[in-house]
Amino acid sequence: MKRRLKELAEWVGGTVIGDGDPEISGVAAIEEAHPGEITFISNPKYLPMLSETKASAVIVSPEVAKGDKPLLSVANPYLAFAKILGLYTQEPYVAGGISPKAWISPTARVGKEVTICPFVSVGDRCSIGDRVTLCPGVWVGEDSSIGDESILYANVSIYPATKIGKRVFLHSGVVVGSDGFGFAKDGKKNVKIPQVGVVEIEDDVEIGANTTVDRATLGKTIIHRGVKIDNLVQVGHNVVIGEDSIIVAQVGISGSTKIGSNVTLGGQAGLADHVNVGDNVRVGAKSGVMYNLAPNAAYSGAPAVPHRESLRIMAAVMKLPEMKKTLMEVEARLKKIEEATPSKEQEE
Predict the structure, then answer these.
(1) Which of 173, 218, 220, 314 has the greatest number of CB atoms lying within 10 Å of its CB?
(2) Dist CA 143 CA 48 (whole Å)
(3) pTM
């Protein structure tokens, strides 16, 4: 598929600088692009490569006013790149039907134009929407529902009574609805607390490979609309994640934590149980969130504190060896002064 540069500009709401007629057949990274492809620059450090790339056109920000090849100027080059890449790579959905090697309960309801691959198991009273894709090895427990146009990749496990919305992507190895980690002490013994709640995942959510979402002890674990979760994330029981939040790889969210809308949690951040994180919060990588975080702010460190304060703490920590050396020198000088100063008893 080829499109002229001016057509791509209309698609992303941008402006062409130079010739708008070159035909673009694909998208590539700036170092790997060939004639006929479009690339992008979203980070200023790549600007020197503008004259070196072999691409036929480059997506740039408005700060770049000229170049030796046609430019597509937009406010957000990375977003424009994403939209154009989707235009060239997304193929129309074609239903694959139901494999004879899949098992579907007679009491399950299956929608139109589905793709259900070999070795899929769909339990009693489940509801599978239209144009849903279930890849090999998917297990859908009884009383669960999956909304239209959702894709569950290989070996995804959906425990019973889980509700999944429309256009949800669950990558390989995702587990939704496993028991929350709840135990009560009886002396030295750990007595399991029955986990009898459910999980609800709303529309347009994407969850990365090998992430786990625990069912609630009572009530619901809820992932709201538009949330994007990376690989290897742990979402504990009764957690609520607000709309359009982003959870990066290896984050651990303890039980009953409430996360607001449009929150970003950096990689390997850990959140204690029963913590509330406000809307529009950004938490840095490897931060330890032990207390509630007020909205519309950035935090980092362990324990997490406002980001500017965290930077001051880190700067002080870096100076600790020097401070220790200075303190030891002061102590040595003070000792010499004390030794040279006669005591009251000696004066008498």
Answers:
(1) 173
(2) 57
(3) 0.89
224 is known as an active-site residue: no
Full pLDDT tens readout for the chain, 348 residues? 799 999 999 999 999 999 999 999 999 999 999 999 999 998 888 898 998 999 999 999 999 988 889 999 999 999 999 999 999 998 889 999 999 999 999 999 999 999 999 999 999 999 999 999 999 999 999 999 999 999 999 999 999 999 999 999 999 999 999 999 999 999 999 999 999 999 999 999 999 999 999 999 999 999 999 999 999 999 999 999 999 999 999 999 999 999 999 999 999 999 999 999 999 999 999 999 999 999 999 999 999 999 999 989 888 889 999 999 999 999 999 988 888 887 666 555
- Asked whether 131 and 114 are in contact (CB, 8 A), the reply is yes
Burial 140-161 (b: 16+ CB within 10 A, else e): bbebbbbbbbbbbbbbbbbbbb
Q: 3-class SS at 5?
A: helix
- Is domain 97-308 classified as CATH 2.160.10.10? yes
What are the residue boundaries of the structural domains of the chain, listed by start?
A: 3-89, 97-308
CA-CA distance, 132 to 339, in Å (whole number)? 85
CATH 3.40.1390.10 corresponds to the domain 3-89 = yes
